[in-house]
């Protein structure tokens, strides 16, 4: 039997749906045949509106009810479920409860199957949990999986480590999938390197000097985006 609260959330999202967004999102998120999100369905709810719904309901929804949303074919249902799971994790004071949320996330990870779903949830749950427990085995295991989303999840989750000034794990996972052919993985690798540079430019330059000639162009462009223009051009033209 479907839960009342998950039904209420779906109805609340339906009210906020915009026809023009429902038309635009499938193109933006590449849902066509052969594209990375083939078959994903949208009703047209913006992320700010999803956040309003998540804020209203996260404290009262159970994991079983969250699962009803996270297994939905509708993208906004899944995204809203993840936003609520993040809030539950962040508000929890119980180590046991946080561990339960992480286990739930990993059990349901096949539904975390687009870049926004990954990026808006994994570092706030998996990354923080691994960092605070000084145990990164989960992220290393994800980086070994065949799934594009698992690999992206692994490296993006290290955002929490990078924000805390710890870069070794991120660099290890970037290097593990440095030559991944998909641009979503190349962008993720470059993005995390750029974030490291924002915290410590010398760390970024040291990494680039050793590896930039082997990096896909997309990763390199993302990584050097905030460097001085002259230095950017040196890397792009292979003068270093």
From TrEMBL:
Gene3D superfamilies linked to this entry: 1.25.10.90
Top-level taxon of the source organism: Bacteria
Transmembrane segments: none
One Pfam family from the record: DNA_alkylation
UniProt protein name: DNA alkylation repair protein
